Amino acid sequence: MVHQKLDISVYRESNETIVALTGEIDLQTAPRLSDAVNEALGEDPVRVVLDMEGVTFCDSRGLGTLVVLSRAAARSRSVLVLANLGDFLKRLLAVSGIGEHFVIRDDPGAEPGPEAPA
Fold first, then answer.
1. What strands lie across the sheet with 47-58, from one edge to the other?
2. Pairing outcome for strands 103-105 and 6-12
3. Residues in CB range of 112: below 8 A, 6 or more apart
4. Distance CA 110, CA 116 (A)
5. Which residue spans within 3-115 are E strands per DSSP?
6. Residues 6 or more apart from 41 whose CB is under 8 A from it?
7. 48 in a structural domain
8. Where residue 69 sits, what CATH number does that domain have?
9. Inter-CA distances, 81 with 56, 85, 111, 115, Å
10. H helix or E strand, kind and range, residue 86
11. In this predicted model, what pLDDT tens digit does every residue of 71-85 receive, in sequence order?
12. Is the Cβ–Cβ distance between 96 and 63 less than 8 Å?
């Protein structure tokens, strides 16, 4: 079985860091995502925005990683924002019951607002 890799690009702006993801978040790629977000948190941004427009798959390990990263952001006095979620990810967050624990926005360059209904 061939796993699609996860491409991670990090962009720093004045008050937030955008982590753009393309590919799959799973057992093999979740540690790289954790490393990228933890490194970003080390620079004390107000927000770390995960631009998930290019995410094609997320398993239970990926979901767990998102929860852990959200908690790490809170401990760092930052906010983890999930941006540009596709229908698949919106449903996954709703079905798993953890979607309400995240700040979600549609445009990675916009200010975070209330979570959109799933």
1. 6-12, 16-25, 47-58, 79-83, 103-105
2. unpaired
3. 47, 79, 81, 103, 104, 105
4. 14
5. 6-12, 16-25, 47-58, 79-83, 103-105
6. 48, 72, 73, 76, 78
7. yes
8. 3.30.750.24
9. 18, 11, 10, 10
10. none
11. 999 999 999 999 999
12. yes
Amino acid 117: pLDDT: 37
* Encoded tokens for 74: 């809170």
The count of structural domains within the chain is 1
Range(s) of the domain holding residue 64? 6-105
**Dihedral of CA 51/53/55/58: which sign?**
positive
Beta-carbon contacts of 110 under 8 Å, excluding residues fewer than 6 positions away, are none
Using one digit for the tens of pLDDT, what is the confidence trace for 20-54? 999 999 999 999 999 999 999 999 999 999 999 99
